[in-house]
Specification:
This protein is an alpha/beta fold. It is built from nine helices and ten strands.
């Protein structure tokens, strides 16, 4: 599968600028956000009724999003994943590629750390290529972006293309990003269950 790498002047994108760009390009798509993107998405989203944040289930955003994409084939499903999160569920790349959902757009925010649990560095960071993994798994296309200008210009096309599409975005977190959310796993799972049921109801409307 094709893999596209782009790099211009900057070698990193501010995470909050990345979510703003995705929000600007988004219309009625369902967005599943977790980890790094989750720190900022709620503050910029202009369609929160179609958002389903995932807390306390690191690694599962890709699987939950794939389930929604398969059950709601006429609705575009966008997942805002983290690199550490995806590393805990790499098998989901194989599953998503194998199921070939055309309505599945998978963004991964690559910041090289587990910010939700305190900012620990990801072992092997810089030695692996998630976009290459997605391409080898069989995603229709895989992209690796390191420049905000390119991200902004590519987003309208990415939103319209048939999936599954994988997009790795190299980001840096602002110094004043706020404290990471660390809550009750039980409460988070209840919230996830309620959110998923709610989105199913919305997409069936």
């Amino acid at each position: 599968m094709p893999m596209i790498k782009t790099k211009k002047g900057s070698d990193m994108i501010s995470a909050i600028e990345a979510v703003k760009a995705i929000n600007d390009a988004r219309s009625s798509e369902v967005v599943i956000d977790t980890m790094t993107a989750n720190r900022y998405w709620k503050s910029v989203s202009n369609n929160q009724e179609m958002d389903s944040p995932i807390f306390g289930a690191m690694g599962k955003a890709s699987s939950v999003s794939l389930d929604l994409a398969l059950s709601q084939p006429n609705k575009k499903i966008v997942v805002l994943d983290g690199d550490g999160s995806l590393l805990m569920n790499l098998g989901s790349l194989i599953t998503a590629a194998g199921m070939e959902p055309e309505n599945f757009l998978h963004f991964v925010f690559k910041d090289g750390a587990y910010w939700t649990t305190g900012g620990q560095h990801i072992f092997g960071n810089g030695k692996f290529d998630l976009s290459a993994m997605a391409s080898d798994a069989g995603y229709r296309s895989a992209h690796s972006l390191e420049d905000l200008e390119t991200l902004v210009s590519e987003l309208p096309t990415l939103m319209k293309q048939d999936g599954p599409i994988f997009v790795s975005i190299k980001v840096i977190d602002p110094k004043r990003a706020g404290e990471p959310f660390i809550g009750s796993t039980k409460n988070a799972m209840e919230k996830l269950s309620q959110s998923t049921v709610y989105i199913r109801r919305l997409t069936n409307a």
